[in-house]
Amino acid sequence: MIESTPRLATADEVADELRRRSTFVMVSHMKPDGDTLGAGLALGLALKRLGKRVHYFGQDAVPRNLRFLPDANLVTRELPADLADDALYVFFDMSDWRRAGELLPPVQRENMLDIDHHLGNKLFGKLNFVLEDECSTGSVVMHLLRALRVPIDARIATCVLTTIMTDTGGFMHSNTTAQTLDLSAELMRLGADKDEITEEVFLRKRVAATKLLGLIIDAMRFEHGGRYCYSYVNDAMLARTGADGEDVEDVVNVLLGQDGVEVAALFKAIEGEIRVSLRSTGRVNVQAAAQRLGGGGHFRASGLTFYGSLEEAFPAVDAALSSEGL
Ligand code: 5GP
Ligand code: MN
Asked: Which ligand is nearest to the CA of 297?
């Protein structure tokens, strides 16, 4: 049988599908960030306003700094056993449904909606609403909220603004466009609490996190004539400072910010797994480099899981980056 290549759905087609269904599961990716959570919560809150039943699936716990989000307390890895057969599973901010984690029960393609902004999304859903030019999955969701003509209240607006502020690094990354700022202003007028997002997501730090940052900075190494900076964090460093994996989320940007650095990598060897975060100032495509090792993401921000030891991971990532012109 020849499978037709899935095409992208329009906002109106997705809105029709959302109106037809009665029960939804909003699915966030493992190690959830402000985009996957904020986008799912925003659409979930909106669908509840339309009288729909909404569940939120997240394999990993909501990080401390995102627990202020409306409905974040409802995100769970346990789904009710008596879910309707035609429940629509909506995947947010992931190129591949497998990023939801192995605890998600099997879902038929017929019941999958894929909402994303990543390059190279696998278009795995029955409907795929992927806008690569949008700065966040939450701003992709905005197109659907408008097509649904659902009122955008302050809680929904806060969720969407969180997706924008996290994926643009507080409006600093190059994916921040004039439209991004227009939309953010509109969200503030609708009641989005920018000050709370700034405080919760960006400003408040645990002392343990700051001590861990010190260790990671101490371990920085520079290669490729100073254009590549990398460092690592392991379980021993976490134990020494009392920090945990959540405390290293934005540390890779500190590495990227060092004078002369074009590409940064942070290797996180935590609980038997090696996760690598890659960031680029824009010359080297770190999405392509990550893809060489089974990961993915965006041109300037990508990630991967490395299967092997830390000592093997350093040269493997260096080689992948070199192949992309580092
Ligand atoms: P982070 O370094 O913050 O974990 O990830 C940066 C970006 O790369 C995010 O947009 C994220 O979605 C993407 N990314 C991280 N890890 C993976 C991965 O293992 N596979 C894919 N396809 N994308 C990833
Ligand atoms: Mn995103």
From this structure: 1
Measuring CA to CA, how many Å separate 32 from each of 123, 164, 167, 231, 249? Answer: 20, 15, 12, 22, 11
Q: What is the pTM of this model?
A: 0.92
Residues 57 and 157 in one domain: yes
Q: Which ligand 1 atom minimizes the distance to the CA of 252? A: 2
Domain boundary among 149, 167, 202: 202
Residue whose CA is closest, atom 14 of ligand 1?
303
Total count of domains within the chain: 2
Q: Which domain holds residue 319?
A: 207-323
Pocket flag, ligand 1, residue 305 (CB < 6 Å): yes
Asked if residue 216 belongs to a domain, the reply is yes
Check if 23 has its Cβ closer than 6 Å to any atom of ligand 1.
Answer: no
Atom of ligand 1 nearest to the CA of 29: 12
Determine the Cα–Cα distance for residues 152 and 63; give it in Å rounded to an integer.
25
Query: Can you give the pLDDT of all 326 residues of the chain as single tens digits?
Result: 455 667 899 999 999 999 999 999 999 999 999 999 999 999 999 999 999 999 999 999 999 999 999 999 999 999 999 999 999 999 999 999 999 999 999 999 999 999 999 988 999 999 999 999 999 999 999 999 999 999 999 999 999 999 999 999 999 999 999 999 999 999 999 999 999 999 999 999 999 999 999 999 999 999 999 999 999 999 999 999 999 999 998 899 999 999 999 999 999 999 999 999 999 999 999 999 999 999 999 899 999 999 999 999 999 999 999 999 99
Nearest protein Cα to ligand 1, atom 19? 304
Protein residue with least CA distance to atom 23, ligand 1? 296
Residue 282: CB partners within 8 Å, gap ≥ 6?
A: 174, 299, 300
Cβ-contact 183, 171 below 8 angstroms:
no
Domain presence at residue 163: yes
Same domain, 116 and 213: no
Does residue 125 have its Cβ closer than 6 Å to ligand 1? Answer: no
- Residues 195 and 236 placed together within one structural domain of the fold: no
